[in-house]
Each structure stands twice: as C-alpha cells, then as structure tokens.
Amino acid sequence: METATFPGFDVMAIREKFPILGRQLNGRQLVYLDNAATSQKPKAVIDALVHYYSRFNANIHRGIHTLAEEATAAYEATRVTVQQFIRSASPEEIIFTRGATEGINLVAYTWGRTCLGEGDEVVLSGMEHHSNIVPWQMVCQEKKAVLRVVPVTPTGQLDLEAYHRMLSPKTKLVAVVHASNSLGTINPVREMIAAAHRAGAVVLIDGAQSAVHLEIDVRELDCDFFVFSGHKVYGPTGVGVLYGRKTLLEQMPPFMGGGEMIREVTFEKTTYNDLPYKYEAGTPNIADTVALKSALDFLEQTGKDRIRRHEAALLAYATEQLQAVKGLTIIGNAPEKVSVVSFTIENLHPQDIGVLLDNQGIAVRTGHHCTQPVMDYFRIPGTVRASFALYNTFEEIDRLVAGLQKAVKMLA
Amino acid sequence: MMESVKSMRETEAEIVEAFSLFDSWEEKYEYIIDLGKRLPPLEDAGKKPENVIKGCQSTVWLVADYRGGRVYYRADSDAVIVKGLISMLIQVLSGHTPDEILSARLEFINEIGMMNHLAQTRSNGLLAMIRQMKNYALAYKGAGVNENGRHE
Questions:
Q1: Is the CB of residue A39 less than 8 Å from the CB of residue A237?
Q2: B56 belongs to the catalytic site
Q3: Which of A77, A305, A371, B5 is the most core-located residue (most Cβ within 10 A)?
Q4: What angle is formed at CA A361 by the lines to CA A356 and CA A362, rounded to 5 degrees?
Q5: Residue among A370, A381, A410 at smallest CA distance from B80
Q6: Which residues of chain B does A355 touch, with a Cβ-Cβ cutoff of 8 Å?
Q7: Could you say which architecture CATH assigns to the domain A11-38+304-411?
Q8: CA distance, residue B109 to nearest chain A CA (Å)
Q9: DSSP characters over A153-205
C-alpha cells in the first residue's frame, strides 16, 4: 500500500470536512467512488444551506426589506464567485440553471432555434453524455439541420483528423465534452475551439466533469458557451451554470417567460430584462445557489492544482493496482484523463460486480453512464466505473481492488 | 404435464429456510449466484426482442407457456445475480394457475432480506420482472385461451 501525500495536502483533514464519509455500510466504512455521478458535500456547504434558511430567506431582486436585500446580495455573490471560478469577463455572462443539462437545453432552445436552418451542421463527439446529444437531436429535427459525430478511437480519444475534415462553412455549432464521464478522457478542447472558430462555428463545452478537476478559464479556452453542475463540484443539487459570451447572450431570445426576466409587460408587448436576468425567469433556486459559493470557496482554498496532483496520483495508483485483477480491461486509455477509471472484467456483468462491491461498502457506478454510443463503440453492455475525488485515499483503492478480487472469486 | 404442484407458500418456506442457514452476505449471494448459474439458459429463439424486460443495466428475457390451466415460465439474463433472483421467482410462481399467480404476495423476498435489492428496481428490473410475470397470468386468465394451447 502506498501512502504518498503532498506537502500541505492532508487528505485525512479534508475527509473530516465531509460528514457522510464517516458512514458505515454493511458494517464497513463507506468507500465512495461514484464522484463522477455526484460529489459529496463539505460541512461548509451543508451549513450554508441551513444558515440561508435560518437567517435570511427571502425572495430576491424585488423586496425592499432587509432580508430580501441580504438574500439578493448572497445570491449575486455566488455569481461573482462563479465568474472568478471560470474566469469569465463579467458576471452578466453567468446564467444560473438547474444543472449542466438545463444549460445545454437553454442554448439548444434559444440559440439553436434561431440560428440553425435546413442543411446546417451541428458537430458532436462520439463520447458525449446523452445530455449533450438529445437536445441537439431535438432541435436538428425541428430545423432540418444535420448532426455530425466525431468518431472515438480505440484508446478512447477523439479522432481529431476526422474532426478537422468535418468542419466546413456548413458547421454552425460544435458541442463537445471537456472530460468524458465514462472514459475519463480530457479532450483537446482549446485546439478544437480554435478550429471551429476558423470555420465560423460557435462552440459549447460540456464541463460537467471538468469543472471540478481542471482549472477553467473560458476566455483562454475562447469557448462561446460552457456549462457545469453545482452538485459535481461539491455543491448542492439543483443549481448549475451556463456561461455564454455576452454578444451571443444579448442576441439570443429568452428561454422561459415569467417574472424576473422582464423589464416591462403590457398585453401588447413585453420588453426583456438585461443580462443575466433575461434567462432567469421565475424565483430561482436561491438557497442552493447561495450554498454553491461555499463549495467553490472550498475548492479555491484547497487549491485546484494540489487537488489535481492528488487525484492524478490516485488515478495512476488505481490504474496500476487494477491490473492485478484477472480479466480486467480498462476502457479509456487516453494519456490525459481526469480521475475516472472505467473497466470491464471478462465474462462478468458490470451489475453483478457492482452489487457485490456494494455489499462490501464500496460505491461505484455500473452501466452505460448515459453514454450508450461509447458502449456501442466498444461493444460492451456497460462498465464498472470508479471515479475519485479529493477526499479519496490510496487505502480506498486497495479496498476497491480487494473487493473486486472477492467479487471475481464469488462469480467465478 | 400435470405434476403434483407444491403450494406457493410451501416453496417460499423452503427458500426462506435455505436462507436462514446463511450467516453472512457472502453465503447468501453465493447461493443466489449458484441458482443463477443452474437456471437453464433460454434457447436463442426465446431471446427475441419481444421477450426482453427492460431494466436499466441488465437484460432479462421472459417466456411464458400456458398448459393445463397453469402458467410455466422460463427466463434468462446476462447478469447472474438477477438470474438467481429470477430463478427463485420461477420456483415460486411457475406451474400455478393465473389466479394464484395474480394473488401471490411474494413475501419470501422480504423474509430472505432481499427487499433492498428489489428496491433498486430501476437498476435491476426485478419489479418489472414480477409485473411482467403477473401480466402473463392476467392475459391468460382474461383471454380465455385454449388451456391446451401453447402461448409464448
């Protein structure tokens, strides 16, 4: 067993901040390795939710009373924190959504329905989450636009030559995942964005998996849209972020109509509010948005570079140790990966492995991970996926390997 | 093929007794895995898309025959633990009349401590499996089909 730690990165002290990690399952200490599905929450986030409802719950942006002002200030403070977190030019470019999925749908319904026409092309990759496939299928069907798919290679990377050949003046949008949830692959999005822009296309980056692991700088990436979910960055469920380039957000029509998104309403005509409120109709998810700030502050304080080093060490250790399991094949061997390891074991169904790991207190994900095209490409029904977060330890990877050995023996 | 049929409660009691001998989760699952492996595989003809019960992760195929007023089930799955659970359902339900099947409460699942497993219905499709077994019983009961006929 290896116990490498980095100066100033005390994983045991970090674990103390996550109450759920103390849970016992089936008499064993919980080993939570399903972080790509959702991350656990530090006490600061849980406390922020309680604090919000205990101290200053009010509807935002309209009240003149103290609570409304405090709630509004807290909500808008998160917007500024998000802006800094992804280094966008201004807080107006940060739209709060329910999650990454809603962000993609917002762009598909507003930008997609006004900017796509018959014969236009939308380029996706073969490793997209269903959330970055279905909304585009829906709008392409309506607008008679065409979906093009960048193929995946046997190592679980994108075929970039094919991508470059695919781009043409017909390409109106490239929507691509930054880091794959089922393979772990980090895609070379900067290069892909530059190429798309040369072809005159707009680019949406699905950052659902990358925002928690990688430094994000939307201006340096030069993407037009970037989406992520709060619950995957140690924040609450039900809140997410859509970053949009200001010029595009200003041109696009609103997503939903209602309160907050309007400037003036008469029965003849409604004028819309300024950014970002134009896209935030109705009372938003105030409490979870307020608590999201605590999650992002926690990430910043811990240091994304140090987290990345710890997670890279976990990934390398797991990749090596898993080789000891007979018949195990890792699916996705890109040189640049986030801390996700997906695998199959010869002649065993992922679900059987998942059930037997669960009985040993080990939580992994099994199945197609909402990326059926990836599973079809590798001709497998699904994988077992272990995904690591900043609070995971080398000992937990040892537990995973021992748990797998046991499962293999029981199923043999 | 009208063999003497045990009552459902008798079969359930036998399963519950077998499980009562197990001290650990390992023994319990090894038994289920063994049942899964011993369930005769469904022939390829039975593994047609119409017979698939959609679960989220594993594929389950279910075929029913109606003979002499009784329903006989055969099933298969690509996941062995699910197959073991199906094997127990078949042991309990197969060979009974539609009325008996429709009124079966399948309490043994709770009694052997597999209710948790069942509750994960979205991932293993077991509840969908029970529903489909009952649907067959309902169809045979309602359609008034020729009791000597073979329906799949």
A1: no
A2: yes
A3: A371
A4: 75
A5: A410
A6: 29, 81, 117
A7: Alpha-Beta Complex (3.90)
A8: 17
A9: PTTS-B-HHHHHHH--TTEEEEEEESB-TTT-BBP-HHHHHHHHHHTT-EEEE
CB contact under 8 A, B80 and A355: no
For residue B60, which phi and psi values (nearest 5 degrees)?
Answer: -125, 130
Asked if the peptide bond before residue A373 counts as cis, ω within 30 degrees of 0, the response is no
- B83 — contact with chain A (CB < 8 Å)? no
The Cα A391–Cα A393 span in angstroms is 7
Strand pairing report for A94-97 and B70-77: unpaired
Return the HEC string of B38-89: HCCCCCHHHCCHHHEEECCCCEEEEEEEEECCEEEEEEEECCHHHHHHHHHH
Q: How many helices (H) and strands (E) does chain A have?
A: 15, 17
- Hey, which CATH number is domain B8-143, 3.40.50.170, 3.90.1010.10, 3.40.50.1220, 3.40.190.150? 3.90.1010.10
B58 and A349 within 8 Å at the Cβ level: the answer is yes
Least confident of A120-134, A205-219, A242-256, B43-57: B43-57
ipTM exceeding 0.90, yes/no: no
Structure tokens of A271? 């004028």
Query: Is any Cβ of chain A less than 8 angstroms from the Cβ of B56?
Result: yes
Map tokens 């989220």 to a residue: B56
Q: Is A411 on the interface with B (CB under 8 A)?
A: yes
- Residues A151-161: tens digit of each pLDDT: 999 999 999 99
pLDDT in tens, A157-204: 999 999 999 999 999 999 999 999 999 999 999 999 999 999 999 999
Q: Which residue has the tokens 């209710």?
A: B115
Query: N- to C-terminal Cα distance for chain B?
Result: 17
